[in-house]
Amino acid sequence: xxxxxxxxxxxxxxxxxxxxxxxxxxxxxxxxxxxxxxxxxxxxxxxxxxxxxxxxxxxxxxxxxxxxxxxxxxxxxxxxxxxxxxxxxxxxxxxxxxxxxxxxxxxxxxxxxxxxxxxxxxxxxxxxxxxxxxxxxxxxxxxxxxxxxxxxxxxxxxxxxxxxxxxxxxxxxxxxxxxxxxxxxxxxxxxxxxxxxxxxxxxxxxxxxxxxxxxxxxxxxxxxxxxxxxxxxxxxxxxxxxxxxxxxxxxxxxxxxxxxxxxxxxxxxxxxxxxxxxxxxxxxxxxxxxxxxxxxxxxxxxxxxxxxxxxxxxxxx
Amino acid sequence: xxxxxxxxxxxxxxxxxxxxxxxxxxxxxxxxxxxxxxxxxxxxxxxxxxxxxxxxxxxxxxxxxxxxxxxxxxxxxxxxxxxxxxxxxxxxxxxxxxxxxxxxxxxxxxxxxxxxxxxxxxxxxxxxxxxxxxxxxxxxxxxxxxxxxxxxxxxxxxxxxxxxxxxxxxxxxxxxxxxxxxxxxxxxxxxxxxxxxxxxxxxxxxxxxxxxxxxxxxxxxxxxxxxxxxxxxxxxxxxxxxxxxxxxxxxxxxxxxxxxxxxxxxxxxxxxxxxxxxxxxxxxxxxxxxxxxxxxxxxxxxxxxxxxxxxxxxxxx
Lengths: 317, 317
What we know:
Chain A is an alpha/beta fold. Chain A has eleven helices and 13 strands. Chain A is globular. In chain A, 55% of the residues are buried.
């Protein structure tokens, strides 16, 4: 039997749990609701039960698992295995989730990393990053996050908080971000940012089919991409602007990290086809040709990189 | 005798050449003019002659040198030992400077890196960075450059062009940078940027003692710091703005690299005392407390970090 590792991709609404091989094959997986409002202990008890069920279905014993890796929203203390406090897991403060998992799986090594790092590792080992030593993963959805592999090694930083790319300032004194800063990359390029900009402009009286599709306060990136596809000019401009903002943010990453490949994931990447050209044109129009010309930018290859990367934490880190 | 390494810190106006120990002690050094207009071959022949003189003075033979390291303006190809093209060394294109050095020192290993990386290594090993694994060096003078050490290793990137921090965009569609981009960190925070902003405002009619100190087109950071010290309000505001711009740029570096220490060098760092508080206040007012609170920011400890770092290339990389 091939070595099997368990990945736990812990999100604000659901937890994806799966058994993964060293080659990145998911041989069995399950999703359960997170229900963070019930507390970390409740969630982790259900995670433990789900792992036991998967073992049972697979005809495996606990000791057949070579390791368990958890990717979780941060900030967290990966050394102690504690989630410090997370806006996506409301009410969770100083939760020793590795210990909670150890209550059932005391003899198995357990690793904890933030979800951006875990997904980066998954896409690096088994997706767009596999042929490169300098690789960046960026996820664009509610927020903007990701991780970086530098010369083959996952960047962690002094206290595991490296690559907070969403809060890099691209426009000082610009749009207010949810974090309190002004001008964060995330305030412009995230799905939330895109929708917020759209709503504000619609309320100023801009004409668009978006007004017919839903209540202005309900406008989401899904609506915007749909309207743009139907030829709506206002939505088309929003999508083009998304390409420009992404271009600026990625240019900064290219200037600093000089990567060979950037993979883009997250919900907004579903519209990547529509803003890819503007994004590349923005990057191509700037300086540092030595950096920009060698860097490929692609949509993520493994949509499940969060899960396989979590599993990979246990054999890669 | 202790092991001796030769560092060559190649700049646009002068070359600093020195013999350095593994402990970072400079036992002997000399500065010669670069004269880049005479061509790379001329410069490197004089560098070779200077190294021979230093050997002679020290009573050493060629084979007593354990290695030679060159820190040079980029972009360059560090693998082939070639300066590709540099705005600071006008006219130099595809210059194989390592081979030129090898003409005299064929049996000694020679390493080439960009000057930002070399200085980073010097300050990391022998200055502010010595107690840390995640360290950033930023030099603020004509431009803004630097380098990063990540988990104890110098970041180089896919083709040795990592950490082009000066061209990170902090204000999209903002001030024009010499590189052609709009809104680069360097366009705001470099000495050149600071002086350019000052001159533009003086030409708009702003009142300041700067107008009495020199011709408006001659205003430099030295004048600005001097005027600010004398209580000039206009110059004081410029210095405060420098603190704000530095704060924004360093915040981005802190968000992405999560370092424990940032050292600031270069000519503008001579005025660091005057804008340090505003810089720290700017960083402290922003989010990502996990990143900002553990990061110390200091003036560079080794003014000669370019030289000792160049020498260290030959035993550290």
